[in-house]
């Protein structure tokens, strides 16, 4: 019997495998299950979404161990790999290498870190994004790689030079340096609706390590264009959170207004869906095995 590859190896294959792969945002155990149920091969544990789902801002208001606790629920609930948004690594190289060890111990397949300073601000907010020095960030990547407890754990280095308005040369310089430092892939991020700067980067970069794209703002760009540009992995970064906000608002508003469930019942997931997502059947079956002596 061939053994199932580890979650680490599964994520590495998504990054390095042929063609373009896709991972989908989740922010808790339930949304992670829904991503797997939809057929995705991997999960993006979005910092923005995990923060928002807990009612806080995407400014490192959650501690890294609180994020780890959420990740544990997500990982336990699913069999596909998780790439976690590790923000800036929650400090310097020392904080990051400890994070990497803990992620490996909890079977989280990879982490993406961005070259900004702690505490970070979401890339789509404000104009004053401050980048960390290249050398400092390279040290962080090296420290992470030196401390990973599984060979196929992935560190994805996210370049914020275009977000910070520092230009294409700076973005390319950083991509080279991060690949040299041992990053397994890079993210080139953009907040523009027009994909030009992303496509230019993809043309100029030698793709020595895989490129990951997050087309949240340039969502009108056909996926085939990103494929042809050489994207190895595309992240749908926050769309489960955003769809849940819309659905919850609609249901709450309807109930507040009409004070009856009559119109709502057919608009929400059946209760049985909730039980089956939580695998209630497994417990019933276990009870016949383990409580039968009672
Ligand atoms: C996230 O999902 O938290 C991200 C992606 O970092 S973005 O919001 O596009 O910066
Ligand atoms: Mg984030």
Automatic annotation (TrEMBL):
Keywords: Isomerase, Magnesium, Pyruvate. GO terms for molecular function: nucleotidyltransferase activity; phosphoenolpyruvate mutase activity. Belongs to the isocitrate lyase/PEP mutase superfamily. PEP mutase family. It is an enzyme of class 5 (isomerase). The lineage of its organism: Bacteria, Pseudomonadati, Pseudomonadota, Alphaproteobacteria, Hyphomicrobiales. It comes from the Bacteria. This is phosphoenolpyruvate mutase. The chain holds residues 1 to 294 of 539 of the full protein. The keyword Aminoacyl-tRNA synthetase does not apply. Its EC number is 5.4.2.9.
């Amino acid at each position: 019997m061939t053994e199932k590859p580890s979650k680490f190896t599964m994520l590495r294959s998504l990054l390095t495998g042929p063609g373009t792969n896709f991972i989908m945002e989740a922010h808790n155990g339930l949304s992670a299950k829904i991503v797997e149920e939809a057929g995705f091969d991997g999960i993006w544990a979005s910092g923005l979404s995990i923060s928002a789902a807990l009612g806080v801002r995407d400014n490192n208001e959650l501690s890294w161990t609180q994020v780890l606790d959420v990740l544990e629920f997500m990982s336990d609930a699913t069999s596909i790999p998780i790439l976690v948004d590790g923000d800036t690594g929650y400090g310097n190289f020392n904080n990051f290498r400890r994070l990497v060890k803990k992620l490996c111990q909890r079977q989280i397949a990879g982490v993406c870190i961005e070259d900004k300073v702690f505490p970070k601000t979401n890339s789509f907010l404000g104009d004053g994004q401050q980048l960390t020095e290249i050398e400092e960030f390279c040290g962080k990547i090296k420290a992470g790689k030196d401390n990973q407890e599984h060979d196929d754990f992935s560190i994805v280095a996210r370049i914020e030079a275009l977000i910070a308005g520092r230009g294409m040369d700076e973005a390319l310089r950083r991509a080279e340096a991060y690949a040299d430092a041992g990053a397994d892939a890079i993210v080139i991020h953009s907040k523009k609706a027009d994909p030009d700067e992303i496509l230019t980067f993809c043309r100029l970069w030698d793709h020595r390590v895989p490129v990951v794209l997050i087309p949240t703002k340039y969502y009108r760009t056909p996926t085939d264009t990103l494929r042809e540009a050489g994207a190895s992995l595309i992240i749908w970064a926050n769309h489960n959170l955003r769809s849940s906000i819309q659905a919850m608002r609609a249901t709450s508003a309807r109930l507040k207004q009409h004070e009856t469930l009559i119109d709502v019942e057919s608009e929400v997931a059946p209760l049985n869906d909730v039980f089956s997502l939580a695998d209630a059947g497994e417990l019933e079956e276990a009870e016949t095995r383990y409580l039968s002596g009672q």
